Amino acid sequence: MRDATEGQQEHIETLPLFSTTDKDGRMTMLLPGRRVGRAAPLLPWLLAAAVLWALTGSVPFGALLGLAPTPAISMFLGHPVTVGVAVVLLFFAIGATGGVYSRAVEQFGQTRVAGLFVSLAVSGGLVADAGVLLLWTLTSDPSRPFDLEAIATSQTIPPELGAVVGAGFALWAAIALLRLPGSIAHARRRQTDIARLRVEGSSFTGTLTDVSFANRWLFDLPMFTVEVGYIVDGAPRVISAHMRTSADRVPVVGSHILVLTDDRGTTHLELDSSNGATFEPDVRKYAAPDG
Fold first, then answer.
1. How confident is the model at residue 13 (pLDDT cuts 50, 70, 90)?
2. What pTM does this model have?
3. Could you tell me if 177 and 141 lie in one domain?
4. Are β-strands 202-218 and 221-232 bridged in parallel, bridged antiparallel, or unpaired?
5. Element spanning 117, H or E
6. Residue 263, domain member (yes or no)
7. Cα 153 to Cα 61, 86, 102, 147, 163, distances in angstroms
8. Which residue ranges traverse the bilayer (predicted)?
């Protein structure tokens, strides 16, 4: 047995990623030297992405879905120049959303949390845009009744259609907003455990004894279940875990794994690259299928 020291962390790679408790998008990483994630640094990117999606969404909502307060504004939103500007803004919105995702992964080490931030940026911007246009449309003609049957009976595109689409985005935003705090708390707990184990935990050199492909991929990253054997006070132990990695970084049986544990029963696994890591030579074996 040896104490987990900071020097060992120099050899830790991002992939493969192990978890003895979670799988898929809930698996959490904490890069060596990084603090537990915070939401505050993401808020400017989240707001910028939402604003860009709102500006981009004004064209389809106003020109195509009937949420334009006057015919003149509808014609303006459908003008080729306006559409061209919206397309340019769409690229900026996609770029800002990608920034939200990458920074969320960097902060919280979890694709699930990052996906929720992206969902909130896109849906939040579009629902804000739909809400403003709908309110503007209804206040411009207070005498017009708001009747959902108009979707089927109107000879033109009614604002009710845009309202229904906007309500769909509102539901999407609400679900993301409700799930986000719990997901952030979960990621922070996992990162706190990892940070504590690296400083205070007991460290053992384990050996990868079994690698089973789950025949699933997260994006293009193959998922596995693995078993790691290690010795504690002369007694052999085996621990099971989920593993996510890239197709070219699948460790083979016999690879050394760093096992970090504490008296609370918390366990964390990391590939021990300092002892030399051997990966599956056939990088196509676990590659995600095309299409």
1. low
2. 0.88
3. yes
4. antiparallel
5. helix 111-140
6. yes
7. 19, 30, 45, 10, 16
8. 42-68, 80-101, 113-138, 161-180
